[in-house]
Amino acid sequence: MCSYGEKQGFLKTPSSSFHQQSINGDHSWQIFCKLNGLADEILRYQPPVDLWRKFIYCTSLTGPVLGSVDHMQPQDFARVLSPVSVAHFSQYKLMRLLIEQLKDIDFQIRGDELMNSDDNKLLEPEILLGYECTSVNATKNGVTVTACSTSNGKHATKCFQCSFLVGTDGAGSTVRKLMGIGMSGERDMQKLISIHFLSQELGQYLMNERPGMLFFVFNTEAIGVIVAHDLKQGEFVVQVPFYPPQQKVKDFSSEMCEKLIVNLVGRELADINVMDVKPWVMHAEVAEAFLAGNSRVILAGDAAHRFPPAGGFGMNTGIQDVHNLAWKLASVLKGIAPPSILSTYETERRQIAIFNTALSVQNFKAAMAVPAALGLDPIIASSIHRTINDTFGSILPTDLQRAMLNGIFSIGRMQLSESLLNENNPLGSSRLSKLRQIFEEGKSLQLQFPAEDLGFRYSKGALVSDGDSSSSAPETPTGRRREYIPSSDPGTKLPHMTIRLLSEYSSEGTFSTLDLISGENVEFLLIIAPIKESYQLAQAAFKVAEEFKVPLKVCVMWQEKTSDGIGSSETAVVPWKNFVDVVEAKSCPTSPSWWELCQMTDKGAILVRPDEHIAWRTESEIKNDPFSVLNKAFSAILGLDSYDKISVF
Fold this sequence. Notes:
The chain has about 650 residues and is of the alpha+beta class.
């Protein structure tokens, strides 16, 4: 299997991808907890939450504050609905840690050196740096990928054979373009310039006086957003609107960038170090297909969807993509499921991508409500730019057009003058009042979306639906924070509850129900209560899993009040050994039981996929032929029509 990513992008500093601000949601964080200590590494390096929990709106970083929004709420730290909390960690730093993880499991990292002429196979497992995909030829039997590389003036082209190709090569995906897959949605929502710079002086000042993650600055000299990637290291990114062709990237020299930074900060800084300047375009689009070439070519991450950077949906949605895809690909490669199961990847993930696209657009519009309240409607600015392009673009010299554009924008920024924007001025007072209302009602740019992060549901795919179509219809995205409500509906993520081993009932050692899912193997999990009918269901499940060659573990969930004196479920599930007895570890006697949390009774059972999503459930005991019921369930989930072992290749 081959995976093609952005050319060397994962090893670059933020000077290459620094508009990618990484907010690791609870869902992503839960996945990282299973990756060989990755979560601990992130915890070791991420900034303290008090340094990034706020968005601050101000006239300059050292000037008056127009408002601030604290995006963390008490429940975000309680670890009741999730065993972990949201994290803030720059994407390029995360990529470096992931590369180290790959090295730890014996991946070879090859640089820009050219391959030997007879070296047309990857040494598994291996990562090639500096190679660019130039063609993809997919047949029903596999994929041929052609890649080229240039080193020391020498050019080489190589072909690789693989069973599947996963295109994770970013928003401008070469794989997507080569396969002729189009994008649908909103294009060119906004053009921006990102300026990556370092300043220990600014970092120290903000840590002591005004800690935050995003600083939205509005004054008569400049308008922009300063992203604090790391206050301790003094690492920042400035985002400002970009209006080509009147403005050019070369106009943003180091001197011009330093002047812009000083205008946004509100005072001189002695140690500004401009690292790089990059233009980029904001889109809100989803690929029209996630699979191509006889389902041998698969898109994931930004190659499949690109969102406005509002709410951290880009990277987190991409992580969810590969979490969904990994167990399905592994099932195909191991002969557990036919290749047709890969179609459920597109079925499940594309609907989530479309929803998250709409949500990120709503959140972006919420961000634009703040300058609009101050009399700086971004829609008007875009309209002015478009009018100049359409009317004067072919008549006036570019320099004159630039002067005209800058003059108009300079006049517009005068609405931010202290003489106008104050409580004593009727217009200024009205605008400040409207601004406060936006913040108080949570209608500005939001950071946390618990319901969408943990509560998204696959309505169809590799699962057996309850058939309740009303509950499967997603709510219309509003851009406002909604809380996560645990559920055991098929397609939802398995709820978290703190538990401990029944054999260690008196000990202090606890873990999450999510830890019951293997992070290394394709293994399903059946959760039952310790009652006779459920043990019979478990016996039937083991038999079906054995027929289908599907690894299965059974978890027997005991409640505290019934666990005293009970030893083990061993005799109830004999001869099978892959089971675990656990007991609820409630922190409060009034907390709901496991089955109450799942909105079920203990007569039911829950079957969980390797990606922690619920594949099937029964809300009551199965009295007649549980083997046939589970046979149908596994067949539907895996896309099987018989008990025969699948021959994939």
